[in-house]
Design brief:
- This protein is an alpha+beta fold and about 325 residues long.
- The chain has helices at about 15-25, 50-60, 70-80, 95-100, 120-130, 165-185, 195-200, 215, 225-235, 305-310; strands at about 5-10, 30-35, 40, 45-50, 65, 85-90, 105-110, 135-140, 150-155, 240-245, 250-265, 275, 280-285, 290-300, 305, 320.
- The chain folds into two domains: about 5-200, Formyl transferase, N-terminal domain (Rossmann fold); about 215-320, Formyl transferase, C-terminal domain (Methionyl-tRNA Fmet Formyltransferase, Chain A, domain 2, Roll).
- The chain has ten helices and 16 strands.
- Strands 5-2-1-6-7-8-9 form a seven-stranded mixed beta sheet.
- Helix 1 (about 15-25) runs parallel beside helix 6 (about 165-185).
- The model has no long low-confidence stretch (mean pLDDT about 95).
Length: about 325
């Protein structure tokens, strides 16, 4: 088999940019980038380009943006490029006629220690679930999402107060290094894969990482303080945890919460009771104590520290969570 060590790279978000950049820095031949079509975004509905497309344009890499991954013209374009290896980082599920196309196969970089946290949001859910460790996995694609043979994995610790955004930035760089290790191993014909089913005997329940929904972001104040703070961390900076607060005039305040602190303490208050000194703290009662809000944002305003919020709002006993 004549191998010229060329790659087609599939991806969309900033997480994928780090890996593509690392491929270029290491002088791999990237024949094309496949990313999502441009789409209108924001209030003005201006056309938005994926972060990967913006980067590929800067580097002069040919870009493919199929609406339909099974489109015969798109598949024909891929075949004509005659790449040896397809690399996928944060992209849609590929049809079999694509991932089977390259002679060296198609592999994916996934932000968890598979088989745990299969799905679209592994970093978010690892923090939300209070994990102290996660990782990165490379695996060959098969017909099932995130279930292919594992090539390499690497464990990554999660710091006690680390947010989704902070861990995301660390993992995209660690992941890019593992991606290079994987590409080198494949091109050098030095790969020993592991079936994911070999891990299943050790794992009673596989933890899942589905796409974050709006309902996942709404805080349930009947949860314990640590779980609520973990949710806030796991959704910071996006899509962001929120709650609805009603002031003394019963006006709804949509409150995004970016940072909070758990205060474990016995009390006799009803769940969801709001307390504040109107200077330095605002806290909400939960079954095992309080959640003290540290950094928040109300609709139409900037994100602020709680002391800055309290300078413009007088909280009293009539404020409540419904």
């Amino acid at each position: 088999m004549d191998i010229n060590k060329s790659i087609i790279f599939f991806g969309t978000p900033e997480f994928a940019v780090a890996s593509l950049d690392k491929l270029l820095v290491n002088n791999f031949t990237v024949k094309a980038v496949v990313t999502t079509p441009d789409k209108p975004a924001g209030r003005g509905k201006k056309i938005s380009l994926s972060p990967l497309k913006v980067f590929a344009l800067e580097k002069g890499i040919p870009i493919l943006q199929p609406e339909n991954l099974k489109d015969i013209n798109f598949i024909s374009e891929l075949k004509e490029l005659k790449a040896d290896l397809f690399v996928v980082v944060a992209f849609r599920k590929l049809p079999v006629e694509i991932w089977e196309m390259p002679p060296l196969g198609t592999f994916n970089l996934h932000a968890s220690l598979l088989p745990d946290y299969r799905g679209a949001a592994p970093i978010n859910w690892a923090i939300i679930n209070g994990e102290t460790e996660t990782g990165i996995t490379t695996f060959f694609l098969n017909e099932n999402i995130d279930e292919g043979k594992i090539i390499f994995n690497q464990k990554i610790g999660i710091n006690a107060d680390e947010t989704f955004g902070e861990l995301y930035n660390r993992m995209k760089n660690i992941g890019s290094e593992l991606l290079i290790k994987t590409v080198n191993s494949i091109f050098n014909n030095n790969v020993n894969t592991i079936e994911q089913k070999l891990f299943l005997d050790k794992i009673k329940i596989i933890k899942k990482a589905p796409k974050i929904q709006k309902s996942d972001c709404n805080i349930n104040w009947n949860s314990n303080s640590i779980d609520i703070v973990n949710k806030i961390r796991g959704l910071n900076p996006i899509p962001t945890a929120y709650t609805l607060i009603f002031n003394e005039n019963d006006v709804e305040i949509y409150l995004k919460i970016f940072k909070a602190k758990a205060e474990i303490e016995n009390h006799n208050l009803e769940i969801g009771k709001i307390q504040s000194d109107n200077k330095s703290f605002l806290r909400i009662s939960v079954p095992d104590g309080y959640v003290s809000l540290l950094e928040i944002q109300i609709s139409g305003k900037n994100k602020v520290k709680i002391a800055d919020f309290l300078r413009g709002h007088q909280v009293n006993e009539h404020w409540k969570i419904k």
